[in-house]
Design goal:
With about 200 residues, this protein is mainly β. About 5% of the residues lie in helices and about 35% in strands. The protein is built from 2 helices and 19 strands. The strands form 4 sheets. Strands 8, 10, 11, 12, 13, 15, 16 and 18 form an 8-stranded mixed beta sheet that branches. The termini are far apart.
Length: about 200
C-alpha cells in the first residue's frame, strides 16, 4: 500500500498472496482510512473467491479485480463513488444498494445485480420482478413484502430462511409464485392465500 500525497488516506496497490482464497481489506493502513484500490491491484488473482471492502472505500480503479475468475460476488459499500472499467469480471455478482454508483457500474457492464434493502437482499429478474435471495433479520413474526422499488416480489430462493430458527410465523403475499426448497425452517408457520405459492409450498 501507499499513502496519499497529503497523508490523509491509504491506497491498496497490490496483493502479494496469490494462493489465498479470502481477503479482508483492513479499515486502515498506516494509521489512515483505506479509500482507494488502484488499477490492477488484484488483477489475475485466480484463486481469490471472496473479498471484504473497508467501509470508507471511495474508488475501485480500472481492472482492479479483472481476471479474478473465482470471485463470484462482491458487496460494494455505499461509500464507493467510482468504479473503473473492467474492475470486475462480468460473471461477478454486484451486491449493492439501489441508486448507487455500484448499480450503475453493474448495469453498464452487464454484471448480475443483487440489491440490499434492510434485512433483505433482492435479485433482479425480468419484467420488473425480484426474488428474495438472502435475509439477515431476527424477526419471530415476519411479513414478506409484495414489492420493492417498483418491482414485484415473485419468488423466494431455496434455503433463504432455513437457518432463521427464531422465525415462527411468516405471512407471504399473493404475488409470490415460487418458493425454493427448504426456504423456511420446518417449525415455521406459513400463512398465505389459497392457490398461491405459499400454499403449494406448505403442502
Amino acid at each position: 500500500y501507499q499513502l496519499s500525497p497529503d497523508g490523509t488516506f491509504a491506497l491498496v496497490t497490490g496483493f502479494s498472496k496469490p494462493s489465498v482464497t479470502t481477503c479482508t481489506i483492513p479499515e486502515t493502513l498506516g494509521g489512515v482510512p483505506v479509500e482507494v484500490i488502484v488499477q490492477e491491484a488484484f488483477k489475475d488473482k485466480t484463486n481469490l473467491q471472496s473479498v471484504t471492502f473497508p467501509s470508507k472505500l471511495r474508488n475501485i480503479a480500472v481492472s482492479a479485480f479483472e481476471g479474478c475468475t473465482k470471485l463470484e460476488r462482491v458487496t460494494i459499500p455505499n461509500s464507493v463513488t467510482t468504479i473503473g472499467e473492467k474492475a470486475f469480471d462480468k460473471a461477478c455478482k454486484i451486491h449493492c444498494k439501489s441508486g448507487t454508483p455500484a448499480q450503475t457500474y453493474a448495469v453498464l457492464n452487464g454484471n448480475p445485480i443483487e440489491y440490499i434493502c434492510g434485512d433483505f437482499v433482492f435479485k433482479q429478474l425480468e419484467n420488473n420482478k425480484v426474488e428474495i435471495v438472502e435475509y439477515s433479520g431476527e424477526d419471530t413474526n415476519l411479513t414478506i413484502p409484495s414489492e420493492w422499488s417498483n418491482n414485484t416480489v415473485t419468488s423466494i430462493a431455496a434455503g433463504v430462511f432455513k437457518d432463521c430458527t427464531d422465525l415462527k410465523r411468516v405471512t407471504i403475499p399473493r404475488s409470490v409464485e415460487d418458493i425454493g426448497s427448504n426456504a423456511f425452517d420446518k417449525s415455521c408457520t406459513i400463512i398465505g392465500y389459497a392457490s398461491s405459492g405459499a400454499m403449494y409450498y406448505a403442502d
